[in-house]
Amino acid sequence: MKKLINKAGLGLTALSGAAVVSVLSIEPALAQIRDGVNSANPGTGPTSIDSVITDVINVALWAIGILSVIMLIFGGIRYTVSGGDSNKVTAAKNTILYAVIGIVVAMLAYAIVNFVLTELGG
């Protein structure tokens, strides 16, 4: 029971930290959309739709990257406290593997989205 409470506390701590980081990172993009400020040239008028889309996608991909890093740390902690139990070690290794895959996918998606929007935008 004590281990379950510890795991729940760790999970809630990580989740609340990710939520705070996400809110702090999304707020500037939402403020730009709400105020109609062009992100390339602040104070020059309304935002173009492709600028809004770029900002929203970049923030979403950034949040995915942060979540992947948090899961990588969580997998490392699980691996450390596994105590040699093969099932726990396998689960921790899978968490680490999927977190690394998530980081790679987020970085590639960021690069692809920015490349496509740059090429389509002229």
Keywords:
mainly alpha, 3 helices, 122 residues
Structure description:
By secondary structure, the protein is mostly helical. It has one domain (2-121). The protein contains three helices and no strands. It has helices at 2-35, 49-80, 86-121. The mean pLDDT is 74.
Quick summary of this structure?
With 122 residues, this protein is mainly alpha-helical.
Distance linking N and C termini: 59 Å
Global shape: elongated
Radius of gyration: 19 Å
Backbone structural class:
mainly alpha
Main sheet properties: none
Uncertain regions spanning at least 5 consecutive residues: none
Helix percent band? over 70%
What is the total domain count? 1
Number of strands: 0
Oligomeric status:
single chain
Strand fraction band?
under 5%
Instruction: State the order of secondary-structure elements, H for helix, E for strand.
Output: HHH
Write the topology of this structure.
Layout: H1 2-35, H2 49-80, H3 86-121
